[in-house]
Amino acid sequence: MSVLVEYLIILWGFLLIGLMGIGGFFMFRKFLKKLPKEDGKSNMDWEEYYMEKTRHMWGKKEKDLLEELVSPVPELFRDIARHKIASKIGEVALQKRRKKITEDVLIEGYIVATPKRDHKFLRKKLAEKEIDVTPYEVYFE
Fold first, then answer.
1. Which InterPro entries match (predicted)?
2. Model pTM?
3. Rounded Cα–Cα distance for residues 75 and 53 (Å)
């Protein structure tokens, strides 16, 4: 019986070390995102800047479309993904000097903000929504 307890203690120790390692990895990534760049602002500062500058530009239809496009993201990461993608959409809208977030700006920003490994899922979701991706092919590269 004591051998079984020893194995369980060793297994529990490895499990704790593994979980702490995973948590530390994500905390370190967040720390790196918070470090200031050459311009004095961090990636997270820029995300907040674009969100605040474009908050008034979002309409109900565009918010709903963003929510649908973000729906494949696992629930645990959805808020973070939504915030990052919305800030990139805001950046695109400001660069194009738009007064309002439109569907074309939303899709362009969404493609730019999405990692290349997830473009297959994004194309599938846009096809489900019957949105033609041919005008946006340049952003997938």
1. YneK
2. 0.77
3. 27
